[in-house]
Amino acid sequence: MKTIIEPFRIKSVEPIRMTTREERERLLKAAGYNLFKLHSDDVIIDLLTDSGTSAMSAAQWGAVMTGDESYAGAPSFYRFEAAVKDLMDFAHIIPAHQGRAAEHLLFSLIAKKGDLIPSNTHFDTTRGNIEAMGAEALDIPIAEGRVPSLDHPFKGNMDLAALERVLKESGGQIPAVMMTITNNAGGGQPVSLANIRGAAALAKAHGKPFYIDGCRFAENAWFIKLREEGQTDRPIKDIVRDCFAVADGMTMSAKKDAFANIGGWLALNDDALAERARTLLIQTEGFPTYGGLAGRDLDAIAQGLKEIIDEDYLRYRVRTNAYIAERLDAMGIPVVKPAGGHAVFIDARAFLPHIPPLQYPGQALTCAMYEAGGIRACEIGTVMFGRKPDGTEAPGAMDLVRLAMPRRVYTQSHADYVVEVLEEVAASKDTLRGMRIVKEPPMMRHFTAEFAKL
Question: Does the chain have fewer CB atoms within 10 Å around its N or its C terminus?
Answer without folding.
Answer: N
